[in-house]
Structure formats: structure tokens, C-alpha cells
Amino acid sequence: MAAAATLRLTIPLAFSFSIHPLTSSHLRFPASKSIGSEAASFRTVKMAATAGSDPETTSSTSRIIDSHLHIWASPQEAATYPYFPGQEPTLTGDVEFLLKNMEDARVDGALIVQPINHKFDHSLVTSVLKKHPSKFVGCCLANPAEDGSGIKELENLVLESNYRAVRFNPYLWPSGQKMTNAVGKAMFSKAGELGVPVGFMCMKGLHLHIAEIEELCTEFPNTTVLLDHAGFCKVPENGEAKDTYTQLIELSRFPQVYVKFSALFRISRTGFPYQDLTPLLSQVVSNFGANRVMWGSDFPFVVLECGYKEAKEAVTIIAKQASLSSSDMDWILGKTVMQLFPGQWVLP
After folding, report:
1. pLDDT digits (tens, 9 = 90+) for 278-323
2. Where would I find the Amidohydrolase-related domain in this sequence (predicted)?
3. d(CA 110, CA 138)
């Protein structure tokens, strides 16, 4: 293992960040039509990419857990679970559609991240957590209201429902304020007290928020941190500076920081199976350790990008190219997130 780690460190790297907006321009209802036609275009690519690959990437007793996905109400459910004004979804993302995709891909469980489509109204996700308590864990959305009411909201969601993580979206903070303001620090500290990890969504670039993350990690070392989508560290073009990528890797010095190797389509510059991310995965595992790295799909957005099942296959292909061990893959595909939420998904 030591030799393998050394080899992985020698892979040349140059990573940077850019925005992959969740716009409606490339995602449309109804998914039943778009997804079928879109998936067909990937069939040939998938067959070529997976030829000769080993489908058995984990041990027979391992669970496959998706560390990052979203759900929202179907149009029929919207009367009961209304969308936040201006955030109406443009693709299918209801729980029944998710369950079908998970079954087809043989994914055993998932962490549901509260979507912006319902903003701070957690009633839909809460209902799903109650209906499927052994399959899903909830990640609520932090409300950084200046009156501090979000601190109590966080506590209630954790103690009264099956929410075991919280997402910090820096773009929801009041204009001109940072996640390190009084409310942000109070919520981050409360998360540590409650034993729930804080996920950071740095969609516009990790470099814009790295100082805040480092300050919070330093001041509150007992609060676990999840970096969504590898900090949105996108593969560079034309020799872009590696500064932001270096910042991502240097966060490994904080033992509380974990990396979601998720939403690969957002950080790759190639199509499925996103093999330009091989150096990134190799270096993240070498520096953080596989037990601090976890796979996530970013359902339902990934469905139109490559397909849900293919999202799981992609990380397997990348890991094989990076010469990761089967033990590493057990961690990345399930054990890491299971370690963070003990007792949630029980091994057979």
C-alpha cells in the first residue's frame, strides 16, 4: 500500500475551479422522454469504457451508499410540498424515481441533501426519511438568518427527525457576510455539539471560501466537515494555476475534513466515464486516505448527464485507472459514509 501511495503522488496535476451552474437550460421535464433519449447517446461510450472492467469492486458484504443526492416533489406532490418561489425544478427528482434508479444500480442507501427547490421547508425530505428510515439519512440546509433562528431550526431537525448532517451554502448568507459571522460560527459549533457533519457547497470556487473553512476548522476542531463535489475542483485547461487544487489537498491537514468524490460531471472536462479525474482521485486518496473519501452521484442532475448507474460505474473505472485497492473502493463506495453515520446502514 505504501508503494502504491507513492506512485499515486507522482501523477502530474493541475486543477482549478469553475462554476457548473444548475441552470434549467439543459434539464427539462418530463424526464421520461429526455432521459431515455439522452441515455441512448451514452450507450456506445459506456460499452467502450467498461469493456474489460471488473464489475465486482467491493466485497460481498459491503454496502454501496450514495453520499450526495437530492429529491424534490413531483408536480403532483407540489400542492402538499410546494416549491420555493422561483426554484421550481425542471427535471424529475421525486423519491419513487430515485428508488427505481437505486434499485437498478444496486445502491443500498443514501444521504439526501435538502434541495434549494424547497429551501428551508424540510417537510418533503422529512416525510421520506420517516417512510424509509433504514435507507436514507437527511442533510438539512442551514438557515443563516441574522436573528439566529436557524440555530434552533438545526437543533430541532437533528433531534426530532433523521437529519444527521447540515449543508452550509455560502450564497444564502446575508449580502456582504461570511460563513464565519456570529451566526455561522454558532451553527458550526452547534453541529459539532450535535455530532453532525457540515457540508460546504462552494459552487463558485473553493478559493472564495477557503479562508472561512480553515478558520472554522481551526476554531472548532470537533465539527466534521464534508467538501461537496471535491470542492468543485474542476480539471483545468491550458495549464491553469494549481493554487486552488493545492488548497483542497492542504485541507487534509485537518483530520475532521472529508471529501465527497461526487458529481463527477461537474468537475470533469470530458464525458463519461470522466477519466480525466484519475489524478484527482489518486491524490485525494493519497493525502486524505480512502477512509475520508466517499462517492456521491448528485442525483437527479446526473441522470441526464450520464445516468445514475453509470455514475457509480464511473468512479469504479477511475479507481481502477488510479490503481486503487479493493479495500480503498470499499471505503469510497460505502464504508466512509457509514463510518460517519454509525448504525444507519447495517451490514448483512
Report:
1. 999 999 999 999 999 999 999 999 999 999 999 999 999 999 999 9
2. 65-341
3. 9
- Cell 471535491 -> residue: 230
Letter for the amino acid at 77? E
* Closest-CA residue to 329 (of 109, 140, 55): 55
| Rounded alpha-carbon distances, angstroms, from residue 141 to 181, 205, 241 | 17, 19, 32
Is residue 15 helix, strand or coil?
Answer: coil
Q: How far is CA 271 from CA 42, 80, 141, 300, 311, in A?
A: 9, 38, 30, 17, 11
Angle at 291 between CA 287 and CA 293, to 5 degrees: 70
Residues in the chain: 348
pTM (2 decimals)? 0.84
More confident residue, 277 or 44: 277
The alpha carbon dihedral of 61, 259, 28, 313 has a sign of negative
Measure the CA–CA gap between 277 and 269, rounded to whole angstroms. Answer: 9
CA gap 11, 251 in Å, rounded? 19
Supply the pLDDT for residue 346: 74
For 8-66, the pLDDT digits (tens) are: 333 334 443 333 333 333 333 333 333 443 444 444 445 445 444 444 445 545 899 99
